[in-house]
Every structure is written in C-alpha cells, then in structure tokens.
Design a protein that fits this description.
CATH topology of the largest domain: Adenylosuccinate Synthetase, Chain A, domain 3
CATH architecture of the largest domain: Alpha-Beta Complex
Radius of gyration: 21 Å
Low-confidence stretches: none
Distance between the termini: 27 Å
Bound molecules: guanosine-5'-diphosphate, 6-O-phosphoryl inosine monophosphate, magnesium ion
Helix content: 25-40%
Mean pLDDT: 96
C-alpha cells in the first residue's frame, strides 16, 4: 500500500505549485486536486508552450498520469468544460468526484454582488463564485456533481431554491434562471461530463492499495485557508494539508511526504493584511522581475519579502517535510534582500502569528544580494550569497529546502 505525496502552498497562493506538481507528475501515476475551484491559476511552462490550468490537475500535461478531482472542490461545469477543451483523449485519465459541489453562474453573480455591497471592505475575491458555492455546501443547500446525471430533478430543485429566496436575490440584484434555459444548460453539462463522474473516494482507496504513486495537488495557500489564514480575507476552502484528507476521502495515515511551496519573497493578490509588503520601488521591482500579475484575473499582485514568521506557522500547520523555494532568480540583481524575522505586536516583539495580522509590523533582517541564479540547475552553481540566504531561511523555518527553482522552465530546478 502506497502513501500519497502532498504539495501545499505556504503563503498567499501563486507560490509556483503548478511548476512543482508538473515536475513531480513525471514520476507519479495519479495527480489529485482536493480543494478550491477555478479561482486557482497554475501556470506551467514547457519549452515554448505556456499552460494556465485552473481546476484540471497539473498532471494532465504528463500523458502517462491520471487525474482526479476530489469531493473537496467546487466545480463550475461551464469553466471546466472550457478548460478540458485544451486537451484530447481525457477519457480514462480524468475522474471527477460525484460528491464535488457544482458551482453555477448564479454563484458568481452572488459573489460579485456581495463584493460590491462590501465597498472598501471587499475581500478582493476572484469573483468566480467560490464563497457562495462553498457557502451553499455548508448550509446544506448545495448540489453535487452526481445530481448532474438527473438534470430535470436538479433544475426543479434550483428553481425552488430561487423561489424560496426571492427577496434575498432581488435585494442583491441576482436574477433567477429561466427554467427552460437552466434545464438545457444542465443537460449540455451532463452530456460532456457524465463519462468522467464517478466515486473517486473508492478510486483513491483502490489506487493506494494497488501501490500506485499518487500526488495530491493543493490550491491557494496556507494564509488563505478558511481557518488558519487571515480571516475574513481568505478563500472559502481548507487549503492546508488536512484538506487533502477530507477533500479526497483518505485518512492522515495515507499521506507520505509533504512538500510546501514558497516563493523566495512573498506576494498576495486581493485585500487583507500582508505584514512584509513593500510599497517602495523595491516592491515594484519584485513585481516586474517576477511578472507578478494574476493568472486567473490579471490583477497586479502585491509584493514584499519572505515572512519567516508566517512560514513557521505554515510549516507547522501543514506538517511540511521539505520546502520548495521558488523564483529565487527574481531576487537576482538586488543589492540587499530583506526577510521578516519577527513581528512587533502591542509594543512587543513576537515570533508567532497572532489572532489578526492587521495589528503587526514586520521586523526585518537584511541579507547581501547576488548577481545571477537564473537557470541554475545545481546548488553548487549558486553564488555564495544565495547559498547563505537559503541556509539562513532553513535555519529560521526549521525545515530543509529540498527544491530550489530558478526559472519557470521545468528543467531549471535544483533538487538537493
Ligand atoms: P501557482 O498558483 O502556485 O501554481 O503559481 P502561479 O502559476 O499562479 O504563479 C507562479 C508563476 O511563476 C508562474 O507564472 C510560473 O511560470 C512562474 N514561476 C514558477 N517558478 C518560477 C521560477 O523559479 N522563476 C521564475 N522567474 N518564475 C517562476
Ligand atoms: P492559486 O491556486 C492567489 C485569493 C483571492 C482573494 C481571496 C478570496 O493560483 O495559488 P476567492 O475567489 O477564492 O473567494 O477569493 O483568495 N485567491 C488566490 N490568490 N492564488 C490563488 O490560487 C487564489 N485563489 C484565491 O485573490 O484574495
Ligand atoms: Mg496561481
């Protein structure tokens, strides 16, 4: 019986999970998504080609690997079908949980309406309907992919839901679907998706029992987790490693090695606290060097420095065995590199993440920079100051940095 390897984001998402999942997928039989929806954007560069994946596991780029979308995700059939159209011959190598929740266009309308009503308190969501879809799931008024196999019944349930909640939807300016159009829409989804919908919990057990090599692909990042992130400026799913169990129907003993993905600096997209954010031209330089614009929304990402305090929190919450340090090359050419080593909180210095990160101020240590790491493929090739930076980070977070990435390319990856 095998144990599944797990990839999780340790910051506010966009750490470079897609590149590492693709890298590791070369040696795995199955890649499985367990949380989130098409709010995720995982960019993978292979030679001249660049792929942006949202919900299809990043294993899809390895023709040998099979892909599972677990019950913990919310799936927009419309967007998923669009994403599927980039690939051929998916039958037999893509499996969708019948227990995953369906995200429909009205969820996106509600998401956007709520954001508008919040004004300057808006979360800065992707506007894709993630919060409302998970909200319906938890409120026990959601619908699962299995129901898509019976479009008439599902249409009737959704129409009834709109009838009951009419005053609320009217206040938000969200229109009820037209029954005949909704039925036609759901029927068209059924036609495309039904060959892929199955009991993925049983499938997970079968493949682990059969000793297959299984990789679990996290989305978003620890600081966006619904419980352990910067609430309420978070996403609506369990992004941390525990989410892999509930999101796929496996147990903690099924998990093997946990690889946490972190950038050599830090970014965040959307609103909410970010203690090590740099508003100076240095921050702009990080954005330009790192091409820090969202894969899903195109929004400029907020940029700042590696936060060792938040990272220790993430390492502990996820049970990280090794960190993959991404985008080291983006720091090339900086004279000095800052790291947030502690927070100032209520007049004291602290080394943990308090109740609300809004109340802290970053305390920095400065490291000497280097000229070039871009494209390096072995640790020995790195400049001495880059090696010292990495070793200092390891000491601060108490975890081995086992993988270092020096460009978007699959091959520009150092494995130690
Ligand atoms: P994910 O959501 O965690 O998969 O990350 P994204 O794909 O949203 O964002 C990471 C971006 O950084 C993508 O455009 C990647 O191609 C790119 N990237 C990944 N690793 C590296 C690296 O080591 N160096 C550079 N310069 N870019 C990288
Ligand atoms: P990947 O998998 C970065 C952020 C949004 C917003 C908050 C809530 O590519 O790392 P939502 O639409 O989920 O309700 O938005 O979460 N967010 C992400 N930020 N990377 C992501 O995914 C994200 N998915 C959601 O910007 O701040
Ligand atoms: Mg992303």
């Amino acid at each position: 019986m095998s144990k599944a390897d797990l990839i999780v984001g340790l910051q506010w998402g966009d750490e470079g999970k897609g590149k590492i999942v693709d890298h590791m997928a070369q040696t795995h039989d199955y890649v499985c998504r367990f949380a989130g929806g098409h709010n995720a954007g995982h960019t993978i560069v292979i030679g001249e080609k660049k792929y942006a994946l949202h919900l299809i596991p990043s294993g899809v780029l390895n023709p040998e690997a099979k892909n599972i979308v677990g019950n913990g995700v919310v799936l927009s059939p419309k967007d998923f079908i669009k994403e599927m159209s980039q690939f051929e011959n998916l039958e037999g190598r893509l499996f969708l949980s019948d227990k995953a929740h369906i995200l429909l266009p009205y969820h996106a309308q509600i998401d956007q309406a709520r954001e508008r009503l919040k004004g300057d308190k808006a979360i800065g969501t992707t506007g894709k309907g993630i919060g409302p879809a998970y909200g319906d799931k938890v409120a026990r008024v959601g619908h699962r992919l299995g129901e898509l196999l019976h479009p008439e019944k599902l249409t009737a349930k959704i129409m009834e839901f709109f009838a009951i909640n009419k005053p609320v939807f009217d206040a938000m300016g969200v229109e009820a679907p037209v029954e005949s159009e909704l039925l036609a829409e759901l029927q068209s989804y059924k036609e495309v998706l039904s060959p892929f919908i199955c009991d993925t919990t049983q499938l997970m057990w079968d493949i682990l029992d059969a000793d297959k090599k299984v990789l679990l692909e996290g989305a978003q990042g620890t600081m966006l987790d619904i419980d352990h992130g910067t609430y309420p400026y978070v996403t609506s799913s369990t992004t941390v490693s525990a989410g892999a169990c509930s999101g796929l129907g496996i147990n903690p003993k099924d998990i093997g090695k946990v690889t946490g993905i972190a950038k050599a600096y830090c970014t965040r997209v959307g609103n909410g606290p970010f203690p090590s954010e740099d508003f100076s031209p240095e921050g702009d330089r990080l954005r330009e060097n790192g091409h820090e614009f969202g894969t899903t929304t195109g929004r400029p990402r907020r940029c700042g420095w590696f936060d060792a305090v938040a990272m220790r929190h993430a390492v502990r919450v996820n049970g990280v065995d090794q960190v993959a340090l991404m985008k080291l090359d983006v720091l090339d050419g900086f004279d000095e590199i800052k790291v947030c080593v502690a927070y100032e909180f209520e007049g004291k210095e602290i080394d943990y993440v308090p109740y609300d990160l809004e109340d802290v101020k970053a305390i920095y240590k400065t490291f000497p920079g280097w000229e070039k790491t871009e494209g390096a493929r072995s640790f020995d090739e790195l400049p001495e100051t880059a090696k010292s930076y990495i070793e200092a980070l390891e000491a601060m977070i108490g975890t081995k940095i086992g993988i270092i990435s020096t460009s978007p390319e699959r091959e520009d990856t150092i494995v130690r």
